[in-house]
Amino acid sequence: MHSSAHEAKFFPGLRSSFRVFEATAKSDEMPASTLEAAKTFDDELKLLRKHTAKGTNFFNVLVDEFAGKLKDIDDEHLNDFYLMIPALSLHAVESVVSIRKKLARRGKEDAVNFAEDGFALGIAFLLCILDQSAAFDRLNWKNTVLSFYTDEKAKAATNKDEDALGPSDDAASDDESDTQMKLGKIQATVDEFALLHFCLESARTFLNHS
Fold first, then answer.
1. Would you put residue 94 in left (φ > 0), alpha (ψ -120 to 50) or beta?
2. pLDDT tens, 7-63?
3. How far is CA 182 from each of CA 1, 43, 98, 179, 190, rounded to the nearest angstrom?
4. What whole-number distance in Å separates Cα of residue 10 and Cα of residue 31?
5. Structural domain total, the chain
6. Largest alpha-carbon pair distance within the chain?
7. What is the arithmetic mean of pLDDT over 153-170?
8. How does pLDDT run across 70-99, given as a tens digit for each residue?
């Protein structure tokens, strides 16, 4: 896109759809090789007009370009890419939760405003160009995550109640504190997964309907 915009500066009459060079070569009765070169050049100008026209959806241009390149290579190893997304997402979420915790520990106010949507946009883009959106949806990933962490919270809450009913000593107090920290971490992870899901679905909608 940057190259197209740069090249367009050298062609003031680019908006015209007339095949100037081919027509000129024909009128001057140029050799067949010159006529073919002029025709090719007009084709390139047509493509350049398409990429620099007002209203051009550059996201679709990117998707079409990458999808076309992938069709030209042996991409069998990417057929099951969507199966990697849950594991990649878990790693991404745990990394963000860890970063937030470190920033908060340092007393950085930016910890509250920290956001990372590049991962979600990248996943959405790859699902789009690999045409694996439907296959990914069949994993039912969001509900599986919510179900898992709901169970984890219930287990932690049960342990907390059992600690509260036990003898009140230092050991019990430490156990209760550990359980509280675990509950906080689980909730932070759930919140981050929700943010990731919203970012991912927004990016997918944007790419699929733009």
1. alpha
2. 555 555 555 556 777 888 888 888 888 888 988 888 877 777 766 655 455 566 667
3. 48, 63, 14, 5, 12
4. 26
5. 2
6. 103
7. 66
8. 666 666 778 888 999 999 999 999 998 888
Looking at the structure, do residues 50 and 102 belong to the same domain, yes or no? no
Query: What is the Cα–Cα distance from 15 to 44, expressed in whole angstroms?
Result: 13
Cβ(58)–Cβ(207) under 8 Å?
no
Q: Is the pTM for the entire model greater than 0.70? A: no
Q: Residue 77 domain-assigned?
A: no
The phi, psi pair for 63, rounded to 5°, reads -60, -50
Cα–Cα distance, 69 to 75 (Å, whole number): 10
Of 45-54, 116-125, 154-163, which gets the smallest average pLDDT? 45-54
Tokens describing residue 47 = 């493509």
Higher pLDDT, 167 or 146: 146
Distance of CA 28 to the CA centre of its chain: 52
119 and 189 inside one domain = yes
CA 201 to chain centre: 10
